[in-house]
Amino acid sequence: MSDFDEFERQLSENKQAERDKENRHHRRSSSRSRSRERKRKSRDRDRRSRDRRGDSKDRRHRRSISDPAGNLKAPRLGPVELTSPPSFPPDNAGSRSPHREKKKNKVKKYWDVPPPGFEHITPMQYKAMQAAGQIPATALLPTMTPDGLAVTPTPVPVVGSQMTRQARRLYVGNIPFGITEESMMDFFNAQMRLGGLTQAPGNPVLAVQINQDKNFAFLEFRSVDETTQAMAFDGIIFQGQSLKIRRPHDYQPLPGMSENPSVYVPGVVSTVVPDSAHKLFIGGLPNYLNDDQVKELLTSFGPLKAFNLVKDSATGLSKGYAFCEYVDVNLNDQAIAGLNGMQLGDKKLLVQRASVGSKNATLTSINQTPVTLQVPGLNSSVTQMGGLPTEVLCLMNMVAPEELLDDEEYEEIVEDVRDECSKYGAVKSIEIPRPVDGLEVPGTGKIFVEFMSVFDSQKAMQGLTGRKFANRVVVTKYCDPDAYHRRDFW
Q1: Mean pLDDT of the chain
Q2: Which of 171, 289, 335, 479 could make an SS bond with 394 (beta carbons 3.0 to 4.6 A apart)?
């Protein structure tokens, strides 16, 4: 066979292979098309079948007519001979179609849905606000014109309107110098979330306005309730400053809503001391003591809930008296017994409940003989603070119990106190009670110094009172020598 014949044969075989390939592809395409057509026809049949069943149910439902007694009538299709008595539904059942049962369980989408901005107000409070004229009694909703256009005469007030704005704003005084609005907003939003005071997702503070010249700001919240709860942050420390939080001057209480926060934020000492049976008056304070120093003196008995050092509005200087309230109201008697009559510099403290004789107390009476209070369960030696001088001096608010655990640190404190007290006279002995695990040690946190003479003790009191030790204001009192020798340090 020649080369030409061999070439012709291969060419013929290649053409035949291409035709076979095209035929197979055509058969597969036809098979897929037929399969898709069968599926489409099957879906059409199912849809028509469902439609016919639905139409049949509707026709049967329309033919079923109930008479006034609730009994079903048979369709009028000609005479029907009944071989057995017809069965009727129970009297309490009536004639209920599946459509009625479905309608009964329908979820209500429009009833009892609060308007925007009033999600935290109950219907009764909303009605009270309407009666007070703070909310329009009738909302002007959109109306349809003949052309099909919606016209809204006056929009319904929502959050951010002038109606509730005065109740959603707070005045913040004593803000840090140079603070930005963004940083203050972030601080209060974070504190609200940490305190669990937010009532919805998102940030409760909407806006902040700062007056740098007069050092105050205004916060605007999204809801009235969150604004009230934020009042609990009065006195919170922000960048070293104790913030003063108040209602604005144009604030008007909303009917049915509380004006005071319902929570207490631990560690925050409010600058407002409300009138109550637990409010304490502290008089006879030296004018050179500032807020932090007086608070250190008071917190030696326990944590404070509220504190206010009264100052002259013109000069900003202390007037020499303050008010406070403890977190634990049971500490009031201990604080009164421990501070009343205490010699503080050249003055003696007058500490008592603000509701007892506060109206008759004057600044001149502060320097007179202090009132001695008899507290059940307390030693008489404790109640004679600022009484007759003795050779034993008690130093308070100088050390914390945890600072006395380490032996080396304890010895350093003893030597430091001995060296300083020796400047005023000969020191006979020093006692600093140390804490013991599982036991309540009397006098823990106090330092007792015994001098050789009463005169030396008096000089030490005048020299040490009001000074600072480890950044704490030193508080002094005389101690009964017999109780000291019995180690009765209560």
Answers
A1: 75
A2: 479
* CA neighbor of 115 nearest in space, from 140, 98, 96: 140
As a whole number of angstroms, the distance between CA 475 and CA 372 comes to 19
- State pLDDT tens for residues 138-162: 444 444 545 555 444 433 333 445 5
Structure tokens that stand for 45 in this block: 């049949």
Residue ranges with strand state E in 199-327: 205-211, 216-221, 237-238, 241-242, 244-246, 280-283, 304-311, 318-326
* Distances 471 to 12, 235, 402, 404 between C-alpha atoms, Å: 109, 21, 16, 16
In the chain, pLDDT over 90 holds for what percent of residues? 18
CB 306 within 8 A of CB 269: yes
Q: Which residues pair with 455 in a beta bridge?
A: none
SS3 call for 157: coil
Strands 216-221 and 280-283 turn out to be unpaired
Instruction: Locate the DSSP E strands across 224-375.
Output: 237-238, 241-242, 244-246, 280-283, 304-311, 318-326, 343-344, 347-348, 350-353
Can you tell me the distance from the alpha carbon of 121 to that of 225, in angstroms, rounded to the nearest whole number? 9
Report whether pLDDT(263) > 90: no
What is the distance between the alpha carbons of residues 139 and 399, in angstroms, rounded to a whole number?
65
Task: Look up the pTM and report it.
Answer: 0.42
* Distance, first Cα to last Cα, the chain: 131
Of 431, 167, 467, nearest to 293 (Cα)? 467
Whether the predicted pLDDT of 451 surpasses 50 = yes
- In this prediction, residues 374-399 reach a mean pLDDT of 59
Q: Do the Cβ atoms of 410 and 459 come closer than 8 Å?
A: no
Residue 286: the pLDDT is 87
Paired tokens of 220: 């605007």
